[in-house]
Structures are given as C-alpha cells and as structure tokens.
Amino acid sequence: MNAALSDAQLAELVALFERGQVAVLTGAGMSTDSGIPDYRGAGTPPRAPMNIAQFTDDPHYRRRFWAGARIGQNRMSAVEPNAGHRALARLEAAGRIEGVITQNVDGLHRAGGSGTVVELHGGGGVMRCIQCGERWTRTEVLGWFDTLNPGYAERNADAEIAPDGDALVSEVETVRVPLCPGCGGTLRPDVVYFGETVPVDVFAAAASLVERSSALLVAGSSLAVNTGMRLVHKTERQGNPLAVINRGPTAVDQRPSLAVRIDGGTSETLTALADALGA
C-alpha cells in the first residue's frame, strides 16, 4: 500500500503552479479507481494488447475483439468518472490547467467535466469502416453484433474484463463479425492501436498545450509509450519541470527534470491538489 500524501509533497505540487498553467498527461492509472484495470500498474499480470496487424490480418483476432467488446460493454456502461477526473475538471474550470492530454480511450475525462481533452489514442466510443471511412457509435454497432450472435452476451456475461475495457472471452470461433452496412468493409474502433502512430494533428494539439504551460504533470502513466515520452522531451527542451503521480515505477524516475514524484493514487492526490489550489 502506498503512503499517504504528505504535506511536503502537496506543497511541491502546488509550487508547480506558481509559474503559470500546468500541462497534464494522463494514462491508464487514472481510470483504475473507476474499475478499469491497468496494463502496467504494480501487481497487474503481463498482457499483450492487440496490435493493428493482428486486427487487420487475422479473422480470429477480429472475432475475439468483437466478442470481448460486446461483453465488456455491459460493465463499461456502468463505469463512471472518479474523483481524479473530477479534480482535473475543477482545475480546468479554475484556470489552473488549460485541458487534459490523455492516453486513455475510455472517455471518462469528458464525462467527468473536462472541456478540452486531447485523446492521443482516439476514443473507444466510435467505430469506423476501414474501407469507406463511415462512422457509427460503439453502441449502435454492438447492437448489430447482438442481431448476428443471439444469446452470446448472456452466455459470456461473467468473462473477465481486460484493461482496454473489453472482456477476455474464449468462445470466439463461431462469432459472426459485424461489417459496414454501406460497403461491407471491415469495422474497427476509431483508436490508435499498437503498431499505429498518433495522427499528426492530434499530437500537435497535445504539443501546443505543453508549449503554453510552465510544467508537465503526468498522472497515472508509467510512460512506457513513446508518445508520452515525446511530450516529456518537449517539456525538458523548454526547460520546464516534470511531476509524476503514479503507483509503481515510471520511465522518468531518474531524469534530472523530475521535480515532484508521488508514488500513489491519482484520485486522492489530484483531489488534494485541487482543494489546495482553491479549485
């Protein structure tokens, strides 16, 4: 169990804001208190997230994805923003941060009240056709799955939920995959898979937030993904400090630019920070 946030640590976080607005980058650890498991957090078993080559080239992986997405939807629909999401929304409303950059695809920052959210890896609530580019909501497409696979969701309702919000199901070989109703093309989530790159305009929006800020606060990320490290490097080139709130080690723990390091949860820490700043 992590130690409680000390007064000295809180004071260090507050001091980051004395120079101006702070950029915020969040990762999977931000959503663990909402019930979504983390890929790399302390104590989590190793997992291999699906990459884009598997999704496009292997029908088995596509069946597994759609099966897991349908079962996971039952539980994800009940997931709500936690205190950490709400604290960041409070900081934005108070003008302490301009918005949030997130590696998450769960949509919880917007649901928690944040107005400006740069989703580096896209949003899991939208599906698009690879061939024609048409888009639908996740809920709409999963309704098509139910029509194609009657009774499937009920039979697999107890499957374990993976860190991406989908379920780990074993009954996949008979699954019928929904296709684009317009052109019959392959449907996929409108997210950045492993093996893909963040769209140039999306990264530019994130970089712009960093450029206009006086520090970078990382919350709930081990910074194992290259995009996050690019923002760290940008912060360092500007001569600005880093702060990290995360359970377990991160890729920047030994960097000279790290001014504040809190080994703890994002919900309690960000709530205390928002309170201390009068947000």
Structure description:
Zn(2+) binds at residues 129, 132, 180, 183. The active site is at residue 121. InterPro entries: DHS-like_NAD/FAD-binding_dom, NAD-dep_sirtuin_deacylases, Sirtuin, Sirtuin_cat_small_dom_sf, Ssirtuin_cat_dom. By secondary structure, the protein is an alpha/beta fold. It contains ten helices and eleven strands. The chain has a six-stranded parallel β-sheet with strand order 3-2-1-9-10-11, with helices on both faces. The chain has a three-stranded antiparallel β-sheet with strand order 5-4-8. A hairpin with a 5-residue loop joins strand 4 and strand 5. The longest helix is centred in the first third of the chain and has 18 residues, at 59-76. 42% of the residues are buried. The mean pLDDT is 90.
List keywords for this structure.
279 residues; six-stranded parallel β-sheet; 10 helices; 35% helix
Short description:
This protein has 279 residues and is α/β, with parallel strands linked by helices. Helix content is 35%, strand content 15%. The protein has helices at 7-16, 52-57, 59-76, 83-93, 108-111, 138-148, 152-155, 200-211, 226-237, 266-276; strands spanning 23-26, 100-102, 117-119, 122-129, 135-137, 160-161, 167-168, 187-191, 216-219, 242-245, 258-262.
